[in-house]
Design a protein that fits this description.
Spore Coat Polysaccharide Biosynthesis Protein SpsA, Chain A; 2 domains; 9-stranded mixed sheet; globular; single chain; 13 strands; alpha/beta; 11 helices
């Protein structure tokens, strides 16, 4: 019988160097780059909280202090806003520090996502937990993480989020071989391949930055050798779990996600995300959209 402890903790790896956004990320973590007026990582924490996970562990590295500052109280700033009577901005500043109980641990050497997750072992203990990548955003209207926790409750083991992409995109992601279950949006994972060539990919379903992991993953990660890129890959550990018995925390299922996802880890998608969020903001759209249409009409080919 699978261990049915509730999922209450979230782990957010945010130790990457952000090299694709240099020089902006020389002194500013890529997770702190704003989506209009809120850093990307705050959306990720808000997603965890919306799914009932109010214990959040950030896996950070050097030059990530501003993440801690963002989720801490800013007493001088709050007092200045209070003195001005600016209640709206005061509320927005306080919101990030009141979202959840947030803890921090440094990864040290950047040895890959699997190693980052392993750094959470002492904090997580023997409980199942969610992993949310800090530059991968899911629209607040799509309750993906809540659904993944439901699938974990039903099947046990670990759960990954899968999205279908065009064949020429699979080589940029971990790719899954899948079998159907009795749930339309849920599959069983039979194989996982990290960044396969398009002609060797087992499917067009790729793993996106949401996981619900059984604590058995820690023992597996401890024994997982470096894989692609010389890093310890979470994908390799999940593949091992997929072939382990359920009573040992094994088994991996996937939730087929067809909703809205924003990959803020590359420049083009980041820009698209900012434009889309601005276009949907009631306070910005009335002025922004006419300007955007005019700009496109003037510069479009």
């Amino acid at each position: 019988m699978p261990d049915m402890k509730p999922v209450t903790k979230a782990v957010v790896p945010a130790a990457g160097l952000g090299t694709r956004f240099l020089p902006a990320t020389k002194a500013t973590p890529k997770e702190m780059l704003p989506i209009v007026d809120k850093p990307a990582i705050q959306y990720v924490v808000e997603e965890a909280v919306a799914a009932g996970l109010t214990d959040v562990l950030m896996i950070t590295g050097r030059s990530k202090r501003s993440i801690e500052d963002h989720f801490d109280r800013a007493y001088e700033l709050e007092e200045a806003l209070r003195a001005k009577g600016d209640e709206e901005r005061l509320a927005s500043v306080r919101q990030s520090s009141e979202l959840a109980t947030i803890h921090y641990v440094r990864q040290g050497d950047p040895k890959g996502l699997g190693h980052a997750v392993y750094c959470a072992r002492q904090h997580v203990g023997d409980e199942p937990f969610a992993v949310l990548l800090g530059d991968d955003m899911i629209d607040a209207r799509d309750a993906l993480l809540t659904r993944m926790i439901e699938v974990r409750r039903r099947y046990g083991g670990s759960v990954v989020a899968l999205m279908e992409v065009e064949p020429d995109q699979v080589s940029a992601y971990g790719c899954a071989a899948i079998e159907p279950t009795d749930s339309e949006d849920t599959v069983r994972i039979t194989d996982l391949v990290e960044k396969p060539p398009a002609d060797q990919a087992p499917s067009r379903w790729i793993i996106i930055g949401r996981y619900v992991c059984d604590p058995a993953v820690f023992d597996v990660l401890e024994k997982t050798p470096p894989g692609r890129g010389g890093e310890i890959q979470l994908t390799d550990a999940l593949l091992t779990l997929a072939h382990m018995p359920a009573d040992q925390g094994g088994g991996v299922h996937g939730v087929l996600f067809r909703g809205r996802r924003y990959d803020t880890g590359n420049k083009l998608e980041y820009l698209r995300t900012v434009v889309q969020f601005a276009s949907e903001r009631e306070d910005l759209a009335p002025e922004f959209m006419p300007w955007l249409r005019e700009f496109v009409n003037k510069h479009g080919s």
